Amino acid sequence: MIRVMFVCHGNICRSPMAEFIMRKLVNEAGLSDEIFVASSATSTEEIWHGQGNPVYPPAKAELKKHGISADGKCAVQLQASDGDKYDYFIGMDTMNIRNMKRILGNSKEDKIYKMLTFAGRSDDVSDPWYSGDFRRAYSDIEEGCKGLLEFLKERNF
Ligand code: 4NP
Predict the structure, then answer these.
(1) Active site includes 123?
(2) 74 annotated active-site
(3) 11 lines ligand 1 (CB under 6 A)
(4) Which residue of 29, 36, 107, 125 sits 20 to 30 Å from the alpha carbon of 145, by its own alpha carbon?
(5) Which run of H or of E encompasses 96?
(6) What pLDDT, on the 0 to 100 scale, is given for residue 141?
(7) For 138-152, what is each residue's pLDDT tens digit?
C-alpha cells in the first residue's frame, strides 16, 4: 500500500480538503486497498495542549457541498518520524515545501511535491485562509488530486 501525506500550514483548511477529496477519488476508483491518505500541518498554530482543532467550518461546508464529510478530523503536526512512514508528501504552497524539508530533513526531499505540479501547474493552491475563497481552493485541490491519482496509477503506485 502506498501512503500519501498532504501538508499545509494549519491542517484545518487545504490539507484536510485534499485528504477527503483524494479519499473519495481513491474509493471511487476502487483503490482504497492500494492508497492510504492522511494530512498534517507544518505549524502548531491550530493545536492546543496536544489537541488539534477540527476542520475550519467554511472548509467543511465546501466539502459538504460535494457530498464529503470531514467529521472527526482534527489538526495534527507533521513529524520527522513520518518521513519513513509515507511515500509522498504533498504541500499546498512554496512555504509549506520549505517547512516540510525542515521537518523531514534533506534525505526525504525526493518524496516532497507541490500539489499543483500534478495538474501541470507551477502555482500554489489558493489559500482560503487569506482569500476567503473556499470554492477556488476546492477546485485547485480537486485538480491536483485528480492529477495525483493519474500519476500514481501510471507509476503503478
Ligand atoms: P491551512 O490554513 O494551512 O490551509 O489549514 C491556515 C490555517 C491557519 C493559519 C493559516 C492558514 N493560521 O495562520 O493560523
Answers:
(1) no
(2) no
(3) yes
(4) 107
(5) helix 94-104
(6) 98
(7) 999 999 999 999 999
> CATH code at 77?
3.40.50.2300
Residues in contact with 62: Cβ distance below 8 Å, sequence separation at least 6, in sequence order: 17, 134, 135, 137, 138
Q: Is 61 left (phi over 0), alpha (psi -120 to 50) or beta?
A: alpha
d(CA 114, CA 125) in angstroms, rounded, equals 9
Measured CA to CA, the distance from residue 132 to residue 29 in angstroms comes to 31
Ligand 1 in contact with 58 (CB < 6 A)? no
Residue 127 among the catalytic residues: yes
12 close to ligand 1 (CB < 6 Angstrom)? yes
Q: For residues 25 and 11, what is the distance between their CA atoms, to the nearest angstrom?
A: 20
Q: How far apart are CA 127 and CA 131, in angstroms?
A: 6
Which among 22, 13, 3, 5 is positioned nearest to 148, based on CA atoms?
A: 22
Over range 41-55, report the average pLDDT.
97
Q: What is the pTM of this model?
A: 0.98
Q: How many domains does the chain have?
A: 1
C-alpha cell at 155: 507509476
Q: Give me ligand 1 centre to Cα 5, in Å.
A: 17
- Inter-axis angle of helices 57-65 and 134-154, nearest 10: 60
Structural domain boundaries enclosing 123: 2-156
